[in-house]
Design brief:
The complex is a heterodimer of chains A (99) and B (274). Chain A is built from three helices and five strands; from the N terminus they run ββββααβα. Chain A is an alpha+beta fold and 99 residues long. In chain A, α2 (57-67) packs across α3 (79-98). The relative contact order of chain A is 0.25. Chain B has a single domain (3-260), classed as 2-Layer Sandwich (BirA Bifunctional Protein, domain 2). Helices cover 39% and strands 20% of the residues of chain B. Chain B has helices spanning 3-10, 15-23, 37-53, 78-81, 84-89, 128-145, 189-195, 218-221, 226-241, 250-264, 267-270, and strands at 28-30, 59-62, 69-72, 93-96, 104-106, 111-119, 150-153, 157-160, 166-173, 176-184, 244-245. In chain B, α3 packs across α10 and α6 crosses α9 (226-241). The chains are: A alpha+beta (99), B alpha/beta (274). Chains A and B meet through β1, β2, β3 and β4 of A and β9 of B.
């Protein structure tokens, strides 16, 4: 699955993932945002691993926020924007599934 | 709000205070020479660490290139950003830098890129957005001296009445800040559009007016040669903050070579996000 979202006034965030047994897996977050320190990225994508695909945007954003290592700072995008990209990926795949 | 006010609000204190932050150091200059893309990537890291450890004084490095390439941001996915087949066809190399931000399509004479390596204390008390505007403020002034009506567009863009000129990115390592900026001088838009993927989503909040993501390469805004602009930037910095002529040392090159082998040339790094 693949979802993209241009953070309003900010950067593009892209989330690629699979769904297995109703849960997100192989999550890859990418985009032209900034993250300090840079090696905090696996913690962000890791926060979405195993998450129930039925969770709504707010709950997804909360998961990402909880995954933030202490002191990490995200610039140009936000947990909410990443959650929106995930939701778009899920919606797109549902639509494809119906056709 | 005028552009000048915006910068004043963002860039960390009163004008005199900002000026003093620059003048606190004896800056060194590494002038441009044609350099392989991987060496440019590795030198960013080596010089940042050396400034952080105090082995190298704060430094301004102007980049040179020996071939065309795409420089991916730290967090960009290869397949989302570039068409690798078109890159191979046109002999464009793919590299990944240590800082976040967006992909740049580089042709050796098409851009002006510089790195500023500074101790982190230089931006003490500033937020990230403030420090971005701070590090590029002298360039805005230098461009205005050339008649280019430029200003800083947070978070990380240099823009102008003629369109977007360039963008910056930062990384922090071992007590030092790397701030690097690439400005478009002349753009090969037809080749660029074959190589970079620019999705609809990326343009979605830009509004109708700039749906073509209006860019304003410097060559469209001045008749000056690229070398003349670079010379002017260096002259502005030298007159304002002082500059000692320098070069990359043998030991720094050796360290860069090691980093290229161990990291920057490896698929694990370049395809970190496939």
């Amino acid at each position: 699955m693949h979802g993209e979202f241009k953070t309003p006034g900010g950067k593009l965030v892209v989330v690629d993932f699979d769904v297995q047994d109703g849960r997100l897996t192989n999550v890859m977050i990418s985009g032209d945002f900034f993250l300090y320190p840079e090696d905090a990225l696996p913690a962000l994508s890791g926060a979405l691993e195993g998450v129930d695909r039925m969770l709504g945007g707010d709950a997804l954003a909360e998961r990402i926020r909880l995954g933030f290592p202490p002191g990490a700072e995200l610039l140009g995008t936000s947990p909410e924007a990443i959650a929106t990209a995930v939701e778009r990926g899920l919606v797109d795949s549902e639509e494809q599934g119906r056709t | 709000m005028t552009e000048g006010n915006l910068l004043d609000e963002l860039a960390g204190g009163l004008p005199e205070e900002r000026e003093a932050r620059w003048k606190r150091y004896r800056w060194h200059l590494i002038p441009p020479e044609p350099t392989p893309p991987l060496v440019n990537m590795a030198l960013d890291e080596v010089l940042t660490l050396r400034v952080g450890s105090g082995e190298r004084p704060p430094t301004l490095r102007i980049w040179g290139w020996d071939r065309s390439c795409v420089v991916l941001g730290r967090f960009q996915s290869v397949r989302n950003e570039v068409d690798e087949r078109a890159m191979a066809e046109h002999n464009v190399q793919l590299v990944r830098r240590i800082s976040g931000g967006g992909a740049m399509f580089i042709e050796p004479e098409g851009t002006i890129t510089y790195s500023i390596f500074a101790p982190e204390e230089m931006v003490a008390g500033m937020s990230f957005p403030e420090s971005y505007a701070f590090f590029d403020s002298w360039v805005i002034d230098a461009l205005r001296e050339l008649g280019v009506e430029a200003w800083y567009q947070p978070l990380n863009d240099i823009t102008s009445t003629g369109g977007k000129i360039g963008g910056a990115a930062q990384a922090r390592r071992g007590g030092a800040v790397l701030h690097h900026t690439t400005m478009a001088y002349q753009m090969n838009t037809s080749l660029m559009s074959k190589i970079l993927r620019v999705g609809k989503e990326k343009l979605s909040d830009k509004g109708v007016k700039s749906a073509d993501k209006r860019v304003g390469p410097l060559r469209q805004q001045t008749d000056l040669d690229r070398d003349v602009i670079i010379h002017h930037l260096i002259g502005h910095f030298r007159a304002r903050f002082g500059l000692v002529d320098d070069q990359v040392t043998d030991s720094e090159y050796a360290e860069a070579k090691r980093l290229i082998t161990d990291r920057f040339s490896t698929p694990e790094w370049i395809y970190f996000l496939p």
